[in-house]
Amino acid sequence: MLNKKFFLMLAALCAGSAMAAVDSAASYFTVSDHNVPIGTPVELKIHLFDATGEPVEAKNITVRVPAGVAVVSQPEAAGEPGVYTAKVKADKAVDADITVRADGVVVEENILPAGGGFETSVGVYPDHVSTYANSYDHSYFGWDDRDEHVFRGKRSLCGINFDKTKSIYWSISAVSGDYLLKDRVYIWSCYARYSNVHGERGVNIQVSQRTADDKPVTHKYSAFHAGDSDGWVKLTTEPIKPEKESGVMSASAMNLAAGGELNFDCARLLVRPTLRWGDFPAARVVSKVDVERCRLYPGLNYANALKKDLETCKAELKEAIKVRGKEDQGVVAYAKSILKWQSAMKSKLDAFEAYNIQLEMEKATKELKKTGAASAGNELDALLNL
Fold first, then answer.
1. SS3 call for 164
2. What's the rounded Cα separation, in Å, for the pair 41 and 32?
């Protein structure tokens, strides 16, 4: 019986491994060069992952190239799990966008470190992103391992903005100096999950260009998103060409002038055209991106972020008393909620505890504004003496 059970478990495990499919969002390829002297081969390194972020093998990998470019070495295993290499070459001046498919799944270029992954070192901080907020005790940055907030791997990045008039940024990365090719366009993307986003703008990707001495050149935004996303959605910029005077191009996943919660994962930066063969004295690759350090403040008391909201709720209560009286059922219920929130704010709150209270405040205020509330009967005046 034990042997039969063991073999059934082993068969299920093997079947599960065989079923692991290549995931387009997590997989990527890199190239050894972007500007290539004519006749020089370029190596493609293809990294394949499944939807859990684990390396995965593929039975059929194809590399498609335009006319004038030859695949001189078909994809073959590179000796690392999920990693394959191939080579392409052109004997004349030509531009080439490379198309890779693994078991029918599209795999795109990504020049960000570790394919845009955030846990490639010690895992305490994301490797290649930095953070910015107008006020750190009114915003939160950190890891999120709640099941519905995980996109790939074991956790995603999370930002909470308590003040809808302010902004938070996860700066993804930057390309600068000689690595910023002026004859190409760059496309930035990431996957985002957001909820209760409200304010003047919302969730987007911002791409900034600056001169070498840090003077602003341009700011461009992807489409703004508000409200609640339907699960994880892909945010993508239009193709962006470096300006003549630009020395740095950087991108951020951000919640601009809006409150709410934002998770993001699987950032990507690709170059178009992928390859350009020409009369270049030497090859050049866009592979160096600026690595920054996140500023995370896990010890903050986020009860401070709710002070303004609490004062707003008290003002709403006073106005409701004037209009509906102290014995109105809705007024009394709202007053009890304020007392509960005020009591909770006397203790230290982490970001998620504070955010849940803020959501309660918003919901209760909407309920208070509904008309036709029934009488609650006699209640103590002291309850409303806030």
1. coil
2. 9
User: Which pLDDT band, with edges at 50, 70 and 90, does 135 fall under?
Assistant: low
Q: Report which secondary-structure segment, H or E, holds 145.
A: none
Exposed (0-12), middle (13-18) or buried (19+): which is 362, by Cβ within 10 Å?
middle
The residue count of the chain comes to 386
Place of tokens 């160096």: 288
State how far the alpha carbon of 127 is from the alpha carbons of 22, 112, 131, 297, in Å. 24, 10, 12, 16
For residue 139, give the amino acid letter. S
Beta-carbon count within 10 A of 170 CB: 27
Beta bridge partners of 73: 87
Q: Are 237 and 220 within 8 A, CB to CB?
A: yes
- pTM of structure: 0.83
Nearest to 288 by CA among 269, 305, 303: 269
Cβ(40)–Cβ(33) below 8 Å: yes
Alpha carbons 264 and 261: distance in angstroms, whole number: 10
Is residue 6 packed enough to be buried (19+ CB in 10 Å), middle (13-18) or exposed (0-12)? exposed
Residue 13: pLDDT band with limits 50, 70, 90:
very low
What residue ranges in 184-247 does DSSP mark as E strands? Answer: 185-210, 216-221, 233-236
